[in-house]
Amino acid sequence: MMIGNSALRFNCHSLIELEFRGNFRFNLPENRIITLPNLKKLEIHLPVLNTTFIRTIITLLKSCPILEILTLILKWSCDEFVMDICAPNLRYFKASMSGTSWRSRFMIDAPRLKDIVIGSSLACYSFVNHPGRLQNANISFRHSTSKGETDSVSVLSDFIQGISSINSLDLYDDLTIFNCFRYMSVKLKYIEISEITGDESDVRFVKYISNNANVLEQLRVMIDNLDNLEDDDGEKDQLWREYMFCRTLFNLSMRSSVCEIEFEGHYIIKATTPNLDVGPSIVNYFGRQLSE
């Protein structure tokens, strides 16, 4: 789809929400002012994107002075670019990128940001100014994207420091890239970790949380299934891994005296600390449910 130089289409005072999906190209007017003064929500979903479209996104953001919600679901055809996200009124930002790498840079200037969701391919995210109002972060980088030509910690260190004010954190998949977690552990009150396998790196990470998150109120961990659950050995391996990780988790000496722990797996459906009011722990042992 081609969007032409229509002044009517890009100068609209009544538009509040705008969403783009599919394959299309923009020809934004070069010599006209684009005005969307009341736009509060912008979503862009593109299956194929190149660097020429970056200018379009930047132009759109500049035309939305009170934008509060921004969602970018993009697949890049190149992995080396810089995108400026400048939105002074932005409260919620979600970016799900594929095709990016550590050479891809996102510069975020959103001083009122409260919630951020970052996922898919690893890229370099950093803040122009520290978002002091940021409260919640949801972060997921796939296993294949955390291995690359450079140390993932150096790529993410600025981003992790930038979200140091949050009190709620959701982590998915590969925890090895969060070795710079110390920047945000002090203020965290809620942590949720999911889609992990319970290997040694996951154990080290939760141990670090237990030793450093001194005001943590709740830690929720969900372990992922192994790939070979079809045979008996696979089921036994899954149950054993869940049991060992769960035992380690509940034997941790938490720095926070008020922290409640909840664990979920495939066979150990639910295990909780006694003071967590979510019902009894449940273990599904090869089709038989056992409750405490």
Automatic annotation (TrEMBL):
SUPFAM superfamilies in the record: RNI-like
Location of the FBD domain: 187-219
Pfam families per record: FBD, LRR_At5g56370
InterPro entries documented for this protein: FBD, FBL13/AtMIF1-like, LRR_dom_sf, LRR_FXL15/At3g58940/PEG3-like
Domain F-box/LRR-repeat protein 15/At3g58940/PEG3-like LRR span(s) in chain numbering: 10-122
Coiled coil region boundaries: none
Protein's UniProt name: FBD domain-containing protein
Species of the source: Chenopodium quinoa (Quinoa)
